[in-house]
Amino acid sequence: MDYLKLTKEVLFRDYKKFIIKDLDDVEYIYLTEAAKIFNYQRTNMYRMIEAGKLIAEEFGSSKFITIDSFMKEIEEKKKIQISEERNQKLLRLASITSDKFVEEVLKDLAPEQRQRAVADLFSEEELKQILKTKKSKQ
Questions:
Q1: Is the pLDDT of residue 77 over 60?
Q2: Of 74, 97, 118, which marks where a domain is finished?
Q3: Are 62 and 91 in the same domain?
């Protein structure tokens, strides 16, 4: 699942028949459908509910997840996906195996080679995000 493409609008468009709204206008998605989106088994969904990561309600004999808690988990998955994609790009850039630290990858290249390789692999938006993340860690 490409979590980067899954927005609230896409969710409502593509999964409309699995979404309900209660009397307080809180929106929910059917637990089984949420599990399919996450590519999880239902037991993993129940673990997330028990851990407080997802908020669930029962309507009749069916269990539903609030859209807000579902989207928070999607946002976390987006961050992980972005990080993994960046790491894969850096690994391809240096043609190294995954056991080498990604932080060291660009240090091994000459400055002009580093600049050209980075420009080829990352969009301007991705580079801004990388720099923003780097500054926040310092």
A1: yes
A2: 74
A3: no
β-bridge mates for residue 64, sequence order: 30, 57
pTM, entire model: 0.64
3-state secondary structure at position 77:
helix
What is the predicted pLDDT for the residue at 138? 62
Task: For residues 61 and 53, give the distance between their C-alpha atoms in angstroms, rounded to a whole number.
Answer: 22
Structure-token pair, residue 97: 């195996």
Residue 118, domain extent: 78-137
Cα separation, 51 vs 46, whole angstroms: 9
Domain count of the chain? 2
Q: Report d(CA 87, CA 97) in Å as an integer.
A: 11
Q: In this structure, are 38 and 69 located in the same domain? A: yes
Q: What is the CA radius of gyration of the chain?
A: 20
65: left (phi over 0), alpha (psi -120 to 50) or beta: beta
Both tokens of residue 47? 């673990």
pLDDT at 103: 53
Give the residue-averaged pLDDT of 38-58.
Answer: 93
Mean pLDDT of the region 22-37: 92
